[in-house]
TrEMBL record:
It comes from the Bacteria. This is Homoserine kinase. ATP binds at P92, H93, G94, R95, G96, L97, G98, S99, S100, A101, S102. Keywords: Amino-acid biosynthesis, ATP-binding, Cytoplasm, Kinase, Nucleotide-binding, Threonine biosynthesis, Transferase.
Amino acid sequence: MRLANDSVRVRVPATTANLGPGYDSLGMALDMHDEISARAVVGKTHVRVSGQGEGQVAEGEDNLVVQALRVALEAAGAPQVGLELECVNTIPHGRGLGSSASAIVAGMALARAFLAEPEALDDKKILQLATELEGHPDNVAPAIFGGGTVSWLEGETAQAAPLQIADNLVCTCFIPGFRLSTAKARRVLPKMVPHADAAFQAGRAALLVRALAGREELLFAGTEERLHQDYREKVMPASVGLVRWLRAEGYPAVISGAGPTVLVLGTVSPGVRRQGRAGRWDVHELAVDREGVKIVGSASSHHS
């Protein structure tokens, strides 16, 4: 498999997972993006990062985008090359907005853009490779496909299907200044939960699928959940407290992914936005990204 381009650029969205009751299965892409350019070079790999993660993420082979790109090139049987990457990042790291999934999907899309035969890295192949690298498909699926997705594993095979999302859905994100690792957020979850809670969760997840498709009046009930948010209060009390306050005000609020960002499926009043900002949360209204990762530029070369 040869490389047909030596300069490529992709755009990848942020994602939110769980959406309340859809734990480890439901996800949605949001209109906040990282844009990454890659150039094939002779010599050492170097990564320049501006925006989120600047001065904090690896600038060589250990960079997650580079690692994902190399995994994808290897899977396609393509040659490895030196790389110059430029990452312009707006997705905050460690906030529950899928930054690692977006980095992985971006790297694999860059690999696809390099190839003479990009179908060797189709969406299904990237879903599988990205899931193996990330560990679960709930963020990588919407980053690839855009919109809403339900994803699952059949054995070790990653699967995803699109969710119908109302055309007018806008989300409000309350993003804190502090970070929380997914591993830390997972460690506080119990190994067993009451059967009644599991049954409640299954019902609410099914209801949420219907609510997202255009039944706005069902979003509040459809975002109730019992399997993860309350258990995580000890590692993100401010976030869980904000969810409770917003829900008391009538908003369908949830923890985004493993947190600590709080997501409202809808808009909030100017007063609530002001109070959020006064509490030192960055408040963003974000549309649903309907495209997923996208190749936005490439230049030809003669690699063989």
